[in-house]
Design a protein that fits this description.
7 strands; alpha+beta; 481 residues; Outer membrane efflux proteins (OEP); two-stranded antiparallel sheet; 2 domains; five-stranded antiparallel beta sheet; disordered N terminus
Length: 481
């Protein structure tokens, strides 16, 4: 229960001296406090990345890294996603909430109180035993007292509970800022991947039309031979099967194209009907250069790692808050103002009233609850420490995976281009020999199938290469600062 300390109620003091005494007293009382533990992860990042080329200098992503692909349509889509994307707007609203929470928490460092004005009127009867009256009424003595008071209450932050509460709110606001970076980077990468998938589906549809035309051309040759008696029904059925297979390959590609278009609409905050179909050829895109630097630099460039560290710092501050709640609290209350029977004399020095009181409170019956809250916050901090460590390891593993993926898909695209060129040459020779009657339909079917598969694989390898580049840009933190 509270115990009064040096009550000064009823004494008239000069406000200047009292304020000076209070100003000198508060820093002494709040000079010490519980400090939160640090955010050291205990992990040592490697000196270099396994997949990086040692002699190659670091080429970090540009702020608008997506412009390096040379696709104006992609630039417009990502700009729309940055401005009107639903996830971005949600993250921005969460950031504003965190900022408001920080300002609310900052009030704990300031006194609370208010100002008031009072007027009291009292009447005292003058006629008692004598019974003297005027016009049947008793005489009264009237008294009017005017007053103005300013009261303030301040809890001395001796153990740092208020400061750590503000620190926790500040770190939570920082985590929201980093979360906005994570959302923006993820959205940008998703827009780029969906855009490339749309272009790849369109290219594969064009390839299917090319394959279908080639198969139908051979089918016409077989039909002519069948009428001339130089081909049989089996040759015709085999080629008809190949033509039907090429026609059946088109609907899944159109479905993939539409699905990625709808995904782009969602990412950019548009209705699906309002989004124009991209027309950029997939083969016309360029691959912007990028090369990772040191692992420690990667960790500072990734907003998800910074977010995990900020969450840990907020949790450590909350542990200090919970510990401070178990200790005594010192509260100072001051009241100052003016009181006078005459309104004109209200602000004169003789009308000044001032009081200062303090109370010391030690929670007793809430100790079990406070200890449980401390244990909860401590366990939460331990959880977020492990999450912070995981984010560090995951960030480096993500970067290593992205480097290896880009390297292998680059080689795959080069090899697939060579395989497609060879398959086209083989198919041209086989078709000419078939027309000349020097090979059978089986040999021609094999070369047709090899060519069609090589063309589709080439389009897929181009898509994989572009998406691998996006993956590396995202792994390196993109353009986030």
């Amino acid at each position: 229960m509270p115990h009064p300390i040096s009550p000064l109620a009823g004494h008239r003091l000069r406000p200047g001296r009292a304020s000076l005494a209070l100003a000198l007293l508060l820093p002494l009382l709040s000079g010490c406090g519980l400090r939160p533990a640090g955010t050291a992860s205990g992990l040592t990042p490697p000196a270099t990345l396994r997949g990086a080329t040692p002699a190659q200098p670091a080429i970090w992503p540009e702020a608008e890294w997506w412009r390096g692909f040379g696709a104006p349509e992609l630039n417009a889509l990502i700009s729309a996603a940055n401005q009107a994307g639903f996830d971005n707007r949600i993250a921005e609203a969460q950031l504003r909430q965190a900022d408001a929470t920080l300002r609310i928490a900052g009030q704990a460092l300031l006194p609370s109180g208010g100002i008031g004005f009072t007027t009291n009127r009292s009447q005292t009867p003058l006629s008692t035993a004598s019974g003297v009256t005027v016009a049947g009424r008793s005489r009264f003595s009237q008294r009017v007292v005017y007053g103005s008071t300013l009261s303030a209450t301040y809890e001395v932050d001796f153990w740092g509970r208020a400061r750590n509460t503000v620190l926790a709110a500040r770190e939570a606001a920082a985590a929201s800022q980093f979360n906005l970076g994570v959302i923006r980077l993820t959205t940008q990468a998703s827009v780029a991947n969906s855009y490339f998938a749309v272009l790849a589906a369109q290219e594969q549809l064009a390839i299917q039309q090319q394959n279908l035309a080639s198969a139908e051309r051979i089918l016409g040759v077989i039909q002519n031979r069948l009428r001339a008696g130089t081909a049989n029904g089996l040759d015709l059925a085999q080629q008809q099967t190949l033509v039907a297979q090429q026609r059946a390959a088109a609907p899944p590609l159109r479905q993939a194209q539409q699905a990625n278009l709808f995904a782009l609409a969602t990412l950019t905050g548009q209705m699906p009907e309002a989004l124009a179909t991209p027309s950029q050829p997939l083969a016309g895109l360029t691959l912007p250069p990028v090369s990772p630097g040191l692992p420690a630099e990667i960790l500072t460039r990734r907003p998800d790692v910074q977010q995990a560290e900020a969450n840990l710092a907020a949790a450590q501050a909350n542990v200090a808050v919970a510990r401070a709640a178990m200790l005594p609290t010192l509260q100072l209350t001051t009241t100052g103002g003016f009181q006078s029977l005459v309104f004109d004399n209200l602000v004169r020095p003789g009308s000044v009233l001032f009081s200062l009181a303090g109370s010391l409170t030690q929670p007793i019956f809430q100790q079990w609850q406070l200890r449980a809250q401390r244990d909860f916050n401590q366990a939460r901090a331990e959880e977020l420490l492990e999450a912070y460590r995981k984010s560090i390891v995951a960030a480096l593993a993500d970067t290593e995976t992205a480097i290896a993926t880009l390297r292998e898909t680059t080689e795959l695209a080069s090899l697939q281009q060579a395989a497609t060129t060879a398959a086209e040459a083989a198919h041209n020779i086989a078709e000419a020999q078939f027309r000349a009657g020097t090979i059978d339909i089986i040999t021609l079917l094999n070369t047709q199938t090899a060519l069609f598969n090589a063309r589709n694989a080439l389009a897929q390898s181009r898509l994989q290469l572009l998406q691998a580049a996006v993956g590396l840009f995202r792994a390196l933190g993109g353009g986030w600062r």
